[in-house]
Amino acid sequence: MDSQQFREFGKAAVDYIADYFDNIKDRPVLPSVKPGYLEDLLPDEAPEHGESWQDVMQDVDQIIMPGITHWHSPNFHAYYPTAHSFPAVVGEMMSAGFGCIGLSWVASPAYTELEVVMMNWLGKLLNLPEEFLNCSEGVGGGVIQGSASEVTFIALLAAKEKMVKDLLEANSPLTEGEIKAKLVAYSSDQSNSSVEKSGLLGSMPMSLLKADKDGKLRGDTLQKAFQEDKAKGLIPCYVVANLGTTPTCAFDDLTELGEVCNKENVWLHVDAAYAGTAFICPEYQHYMKGVELAESFNFNPHKWMLVNFDCSAMWVKNAKYLVEAFNVERIYLKDKHKGLAPEYRHWQISLGRRFRALKLWFVLRIYGVEGLRKHVRDQISLAKYFEEFVVKDERFELCTSSMGLVCFRLKGDDHLTEKLLHVVSERRNIFVIAGHFNGKECIRFAICSRLTQREDVEYAWKEFLAATEQIVSSKAKITCEVTGKKILSAELTKMANHTEKSK
Ligand SMILES: *Cc1c(COP(=O)(O)O)cnc(C)c1O
């Protein structure tokens, strides 16, 4: 393909994406294809002869698009948002266009240097303590990683390296191997599955401690777990605190956890994957209180900050620990000199690096801080708007409402909420998923798409109402599916239990 054809193909692709966004609302949020649909539509072998880009584009529309879940539909309310914006899409395109691999400073100086500056901009926006920033005098710094999962794992490896070194330096009678076999990590039972995975990957048992009724891991719970494990001869090494848990967007108290960790020389990592974006607004920064007690901090601009996947921002107080864990050359970093660029390959798992800073720069410049704060505040106010509908309808119970996430349920037995979710899912007009709150089934309603507006929230609420009518009449009477009799809603729970048992 020559550059003239690229101009045409590229422009056609941009038009296709722009049209897709202009009309995304008209598409059903979930595809209706069945598993394996694509295999029948594609040839068994790669084409022997090159085809035209026009043919390829046609197949995108006819074969690929039917199998796309529309994450940016205003009716998408599942999981958490995944970021999307046009500036970020162009940033991705240009990064692909340059096609460098930033494995060292000289491999493409702008890659490293823009990342350093972007991580400073971002860190200052969040009001992170200065010692985490590249621009501070010390050994801290920020880096862009691929995902929060990766960051949790990387921080675990660094924590392991640090603990082994600390204990050996303190003349521990144990060998390096013996120390490693005794290390334990902790988080709450509300943490993301990737936290448990990091323990598996890093061969460090991850204890998922019970959170309190508000979904927070408490300091005394952590302290008790440390004591019990130490009594067994184990060595507490790594704790992952949550700012914005996946199930309900609950916030751990960093001061409480940090004090316990600091006392025991345990590495505290903060996972703020989703909610971290809100900290660009001063009114939400109080959730970070105590962050100065942490060794590492992470949030995903690729979730809520309009920077397309992948872009996960990680800061550490002391980059030496990362380099020690990852530098196969084992030439230890001396104290960082001001102005000297970090060799980011020693801060990560892979050798090659993408130019992720470019899309971040585009988004920060084109939206501006003001534009990004407005995005966060608008989305939170949409969640509040939904919350009001839930609270006003006495058939429903609000479980939690935090940031852009509302968790709610039908009053009564879990079967009712399960049924509601089932009916809503069958109707396929909006996409939501189930959650749990204090052992009860709930529905997670997240404001995800940047295109979602008040009318879309109203639409979603009407979907819940219509589905509810099918299972709980507003006049407290429904027609029993089995006997055809009218029954009171109070009896519905009994019914649901009975139906379930008789299955
Ligand atoms: C989404 C999420 C993750 C996982 O993020 P990835 O970048 O996809 O790895 C981890 N922790 C929390 C709290 C999350 O919300």
From TrEMBL:
Instruction: Offer an example of a GO molecular function term for this protein.
Output: pyridoxal phosphate binding
Key words, A-Z? Lyase, Pyridoxal phosphate
Spell out which residues are annotated as carrying N6-(pyridoxal phosphate)lysine.
Answer: 303
What does this protein need as cofactor? pyridoxal 5'-phosphate
Keyword Phosphoprotein tagged: no
TM helices/strands, residue ranges: none
InterPro entries named among the record's database cross-references: Aromatic_deC (IPR010977), PyrdxlP-dep_de-COase (IPR002129), PyrdxlP-dep_Trfase (IPR015424), PyrdxlP-dep_Trfase_major (IPR015421), PyrdxlP-dep_Trfase_small (IPR015422), Pyridoxal-P_BS (IPR021115)
Q: Which GO terms describe its cellular component?
A: cytoplasm
A biological process (GO) annotation for this entry?
Answer: catecholamine metabolic process
Q: Which PANTHER family match?
A: 3,4-DIHYDROXYPHENYLACETALDEHYDE SYNTHASE, GROUP II PYRIDOXAL-5-PHOSPHATE DECARBOXYLASE
What family is reported?
Answer: Belongs to the group II decarboxylase family.
Q: Can you say what this protein is called?
A: Aromatic-L-amino-acid decarboxylase
